[in-house]
Specification:
The chain has 75 residues and is mainly β. The protein contains no helices and 8 strands.
């Protein structure tokens, strides 16, 4: 998808994704944001920065972060 969407995750967290296709900006409930570039550059579903990743599959997204179980989040 391209644009902004709110995701509710299985652990109760909410993430806001703002996708420009080349990158996704993730906004967290505490007001912080993280920019993840597409990986590979022409990917429309996989975004990676260091040990963080967001993988989109339709209405769902998996959010990977260091030392934590991946979060399943839904639009």
């Amino acid at each position: 998808y391209e644009g902004r969407a709110l995701y509710k995750c299985d652990n109760g967290e909410s993430l806001q994704g703002d996708n420009t296709v080349a990158a996704v900006s993730i906004g967290f409930a505490d007001g912080t944001t993280m920019q993840l570039p597409a990986s590979p550059a022409d990917s429309h579903t996989r975004y990676v920065q260091q040990q963080y990743a967001m993988v989109f599959d339709g209405e769902e997204a998996l959010f990977f972060r260091p030392k934590a179980q991946p979060l399943t989040c839904r639009r």
